């Protein structure tokens, strides 16, 4: 039984651009959603924030200055520093309550305390990401599954293009074991022979060929933005629409940091789409203003 959130979607605040910052953050939006969503739907929201927990976990295990107290903590993570810091102490693990953590977190933590842990941060990051994609692609929510699959395939293709460009050997760099990953490892043709399997591969190759890194990143984010829009085109007030909004908010936050003007433009675009993209039932009225 799917639940619609008419008032939540219809009541999103009007954008009032301010210099170099957004009207509200993804953290504040998460707190609002915690109050208003069904617990099963909010669990999906939390999953989208797991990647920030990855960043914090990796920094705890691989901080280079020798002082965990000096780590800059990404507050977008679901877990606090006090939650995660005990995980770096092997003696704490026997009594640690992992019930609130996804299984792949626990597997990664025990691997880090094993006799052969990953020694490089990039290798450890790939392991966490692999567990993350496996979790999302097994979701009972179609938007979560499809978006995760898109991102995993896209990241694998970008990895393959980098391997080809720099002529390095890194077969273990790919995430997932499927026909696409196999083709990326073996094929030498321009599109890896994937033109029929991956409909966006030509666009992705053209984006990869952009020399300016910032322009390339912007094009990648806009490609993801378009994918999100197309995937949720027929979702109006469901959790999929809210998850799509959250992912766009992540993109806007990123560009506020990299390029304030571009970030504001993206954020304005989100709200323009929210306000004009629906035909609201008569019993619901758009209410603008600040978050309650």
What is the ordering of alpha helices and beta strands?
Answer: HHHHHHHHHHHH
Whole-angstrom Rg:
20 Å
Poorly predicted ranges: 14-19, 277-292
**Number of β-strand runs:** 0
Number of helices: 12
End-to-end Cα distance: 28 Å
Number of spatially distinct domains = 1
Helix content: 55-70%
Apparent shape: globular
Taking the sheet with the most strands, its summary is:
none
> Strand content of the residues, in percent?
under 5%
User: What's the pLDDT, averaged over the residues?
Assistant: 85
SSE class: mainly alpha
Which features characterize this protein?
single chain, 292 residues, mainly alpha, disordered C terminus, DUF2764
Structure summary:
By secondary structure, the protein is an all-alpha fold. Helices cover 58% and strands 0% of the residues. The protein is built from twelve helices and no strands.
Topology:
Blueprint: H1 6-10, H2 26-36, H3 39-62, H4 81-84, H5 103-112, H6 121-137, H7 142-166, H8 179-186, H9 201-208, H10 213-231, H11 239-258, H12 260-276
Helix pairs in contact: 3-6, 3-11, 7-8, 7-9, 7-10, 10-11, 11-12
Protein name: DUF2764 domain-containing protein
Pfam families: DUF2764 (PF10962)
InterPro entries: DUF2764
Your description of this structure?
There is one protein chain. The chain is an all-alpha fold and about 290 residues long. The protein has one domain. The chain is about 60% helix and about 0% strand. The chain is globular, with a radius of gyration of 20 Å. The two termini are about 30 Å apart. It comes from Thermophagus xiamenensis.
């Amino acid at each position: 039984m799917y639940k619609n959130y008419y008032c939540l979607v219809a009541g999103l605040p009007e954008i009032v651009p301010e210099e170099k910052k957004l009207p509200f953050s993804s953290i504040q939006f998460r707190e609002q959603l915690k109050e208003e969503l069904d617990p099963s739907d909010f669990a999906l929201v939390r999953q989208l924030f797991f990647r920030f927990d990855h960043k914090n976990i990796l920094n705890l295990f691989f901080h280079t200055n020798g002082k965990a107290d000096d780590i800059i903590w990404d507050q977008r993570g679901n877990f606090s520093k006090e939650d995660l810091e005990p995980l770096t102490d092997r003696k704490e693990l026997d009594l640690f309550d992992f019930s609130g953590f996804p299984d792949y977190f626990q597997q990664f933590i025990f691997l880090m305390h094993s006799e052969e842990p990953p020694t490089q941060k990039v290798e450890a990051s790939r392991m966490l990401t692999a567990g993350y994609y496996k979790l999302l692609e097994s979701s009972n929510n179609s938007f979560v599954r499809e978006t995760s699959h898109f991102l995993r395939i896209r990241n694998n293709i970008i990895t393959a293009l980098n391997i080809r460009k720099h002529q390095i050997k890194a077969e273990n760099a790919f995430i997932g074991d499927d026909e696409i990953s196999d083709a990326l490892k073996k094929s030498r043709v321009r599109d890896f022979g994937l033109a029929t399997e991956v409909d966006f591969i030509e666009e992705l190759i053209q984006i990869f060929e952009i020399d300016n890194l910032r322009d390339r990143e912007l094009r990648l984010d806009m490609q993801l933005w378009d994918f999100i829009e197309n995937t949720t085109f027929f979702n109006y007030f469901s959790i999929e629409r809210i998850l799509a909004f959250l992912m766009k908010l992540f993109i806007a936050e990123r560009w506020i940091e990299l390029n304030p003007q571009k970030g504001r433009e993206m954020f304005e675009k989100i709200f323009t789409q929210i306000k004009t993209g629906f035909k609201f039932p008569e019993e619901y009225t758009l209410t603008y203003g600040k978050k309650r």
